[in-house]
Amino acid sequence: MKKLHLKNTDKTLFNEVRTHVKNSANRLGxxxxxxxxxxxxxxxxxxxxxxxxxxxxRDVQADTQFHIASVRKTYIGFAAAYAVYHDYFSIDDPIxxxxxxxxxxxxxxxxxxxxxxxxxxxxxxxxxxxxEYNPGESWAYRGPSIELLTAIIKKTTGKSxxxxxxxxxxxxxxxxxxxxxxxxxxxxxxxxxxxxxNNPFWVETDNIDGSDMNMYVSxxxxxxxxxxxxxxxxxxxxxxxxxDIIKMATAIQTPNERLPIEKNGFLWFVKGxxxxxxxxxxxxxxxxFQLLGYTNVALLVIPEENVxxxxxxxxxxxxxxxxxxxxxxxxxxxxxxxxxxARTEE
Length: 346
Known about the structure:
This protein has one domain (about 10-345): DD-peptidase/beta-lactamase superfamily (Beta-lactamase, 3-Layer(aba) Sandwich). It has helices at about 15-30, 75-85, 110-115, 145-155, 160-175, 220-230, 245-250, 325-345; strands at about 30-40, 40-50, 65, 120-125, 130, 180, 195, 215-220, 235, 240, 270, 290, 300, 305-315, 315. The radius of gyration is 19 Å and the shape is globular. Helix 1 runs antiparallel to helix 8 (about 325-345). By secondary structure, it is α+β, with helices and mostly antiparallel strands.
């Protein structure tokens, strides 16, 4: 694995980010981790609290694996970009050609691009797949797109999302704390996710093909995953991933960009202009990309400042009086502010 060394200059420039994450952890009642890479060096790496609420719980540390919730979609987006790059399918293919139930009217007009950018218009109502709006005419963060997208990847490439990531990334780069994990098997490194009883969104599964919500990653390897994207597939001076795969995944792919909706690449949120409702803070510069998850995790990449920032927690959902989206946005704003300060003082 790439050995990034701590920067020898003034690391206090990013103390405000560390304080922000520590305060969020206290409000969430959660263990936490922060890892940041700036100018090709790990410039801050901090761990707070315990992996669970048990009396003898293990301290959160460098190898602690956190449930990353929707941030797993960055890996699914990579697998989709890999498949498009190698001509297994096109981003503008109608999804109906890959569906066995292709006669369903609900799929009409929906392309792979719509699945990748949350503009497909599909939702589940009373167990039925229905159309909420016509594809490309609006934006909504709905679940059916991931099931359809991972199925198309598997059908066209003959490989699961997990297979593609293992072959293309984990094994070549030596990642050891990034995996979909069988929930029935105990693991010492896994942070026990704190959640409300009977949370309707919690999923436990032994399916490890990359299509389900059981992905666990250490803060350090999640930051290195972001760093691979920041470097556009370059690793230790070598182009280990074709640059076009990364550029495709992190560029705005949303149809009809003029609509005042969230902009996405291959599932990444990509910063265009500021929107009234946005996942990314207003101070974060254009061209940055991010994903966040229900465990309050965030992976933010700011190419303009050559920075990657990761925060992870083991709290599933949020307590009362905690504005999850506002906190994520302010995290990005603080990262951006400190990055600019670091650049001007170097």
